[in-house]
Amino acid sequence: MSEWDIKGLETNFEGFRKDRFPALSAADAFERFSVRQILKDDDLSDDEIELGILGGTDDGGADGMYFFVNRVLIQDETDLPDEALSARLVIVQAKLESGFSEVAVTKLEAFAHDLLDHSRPVDGMVHLNADVRDAIQRFRENYTKILASPHSMVVAFAYATKS
User: Fold this and answer.
1) Is 73 within 8 Å of 142 (Cβ atoms)?
2) H or E element: which one contains 109?
């Protein structure tokens, strides 16, 4: 990115933070800003974005996780469709830094192994905080419900920084 692109990103982010999340730290607001940009085609509300935020201590390198079935965000109260045609899982890592790190990518890989390896019990993932373990459990339960339906499944990883 050019210097002007980075300056434009920073200006847009500061406006977003001031308007929507003035009480949050810059790092926490950047997580939400990044998710909004990554999932802009899904047109999520601030509340829907907030429900997928996982960032914090022992988050396993995932700041957000969003599961869609037939282009609908699956939340606790969402009824899964009888026939799933498509499923998409989006895992987001956002760092308010001016570069990318190999460590962040390695953490995302480890998180994906924890998430997708059903032979590993969620309760045994003591290296992850309770919110992350709950999110993994919810994803596994919801995805299991649609397994019998022929569908496509995409797992997308997004890593956002100021670069």
Assistant:
1) no
2) helix 102-116
Strand partners, 158: 92
For residue 134, how far is the Cα from the chain centroid? 14
pLDDT of residue 2: 82
Residues in the chain, total: 163
Q: Which residues contact 94 (CB under 8 A, 6 or more apart)?
A: 30, 31, 33, 34, 35, 55, 63, 64, 159, 160, 161
This prediction's pTM: 0.92
Rounded to whole angstroms, the Cα distance separating 108 from 36 reads: 19
Taking the chain (163 residues) in runs of 10, the rounded mean pLDDT of each run is 86 93 94 96 94 89 96 90 92 90 92 94 94 95 93 96 86
Rounded to whole angstroms, the Cα distance separating 34 from 62 reads 13
Query: What is the strand order of the sheet 64-69 is part of?
Result: 72-73, 64-69, 86-94, 152-160
Q: What is the DSSP secondary structure assignment for residue 53, as one 8-state letter?
A: B
Structure confidence at residue 78 (pLDDT): 86
| Long-range contact pairs involving 16-19 (C-beta distance under 8 Å, separation at least 24) | none
